[in-house]
Design goal:
Layout: E1 10-12, E2 18-19, E3 21-24, E4 31-33, E5 37-38, H1 40-55, H2 57-89, E6 94-95, E7 102-103, E8 109-110, E9 115-116, H3 123-144, H4 154-157, H5 183-186
Antiparallel strand pairs: 1-3, 2-5, 3-4, 6-7, 8-9
Helix pairs in contact: 1-2
């Protein structure tokens, strides 16, 4: 029997007792699974091996013999099952004549253009996508034109830490939430010129030399 072309994206779910395949859209990855086809030789081998585990001896040898026979015919049986699976699932896909990909008709196929949406995007979908992208860009531009720091001071935005345990201090906290040390005595000061953490009692910044408040 002649070979049959189909999507390269498939997964073999076959086992010793039967055959089943799943085929995937080349564009989005959506899949369709074929019907399960029992492998008579595999079922017989499994039954004989199960009986052999109970009775042993001649029955167990017969089970292994059937297993070898199953392996001998597996190639032809698999090929037949694979062709049947392709025949079953191929109507669920469309092949693009431009790029050759097999795609799902629900999401990735442009029926009007008779091509996949990678080659012939849906113009209405593209227009909506472009409009949203432009709207986001415009929101960014509008936000940049507005002062977002009104009412905020640079000092207030700096993260303060407890000088004793180094835990972060909440805004306007009077005591450290971790060790209870009074903030007025333990808060790390920051240079108002360069932002370098200050040393309690220091009169000048160690980073830029600017005078520090007492």
């Amino acid at each position: 029997m002649a070979s049959q072309a189909f999507t390269r994206n498939y997964r073999d779910h076959s086992n010793d007792t039967g055959f089943q395949f799943e085929f995937f859209c080349d564009k989005c990855g959506n899949g369709f699974r074929s019907s399960y086809k029992a492998n008579g030789m595999g079922v017989a081998a499994s039954l004989l091996k199960a009986a052999g585990s109970l009775f042993g001896g001649v029955v167990q040898s017969a089970g292994w013999g059937a297993d070898h026979a199953k392996d001998a015919f597996r190639g032809g049986a698999w090929d037949t099952a694979f062709r049947e699976a392709i025949t079953e699932c191929i109507p669920k896909f469309r092949q693009c004549t431009r790029c050759g990909q097999w795609v799902c008709p629900e999401i990735c196929w442009n029926e009007k253009r008779v091509m996949c949406e990678a080659c012939a995007p849906d113009l209405q979908e593209e227009a909506a996508h472009i409009q949203n992208s432009v709207a986001i860009e415009q929101l960014h531009e509008r936000a940049r034109g507005i002062d977002q720091t009104q009412g905020q001071s640079v000092e207030g935005l700096q993260a303060a830490a407890c000088a004793k345990c180094n835990s972060r201090l909440q805004s306007n906290a009077k005591f450290c939430g971790s060790c209870g040390t009074p903030v007025a005595a333990a808060q790390k000061a920051f240079c108002s010129q360069c932002g370098t953490p200050g040393v309690p009692g220091a009169r000048f910044c160690s980073g830029c030399g600017a005078p520090q408040g007492g």
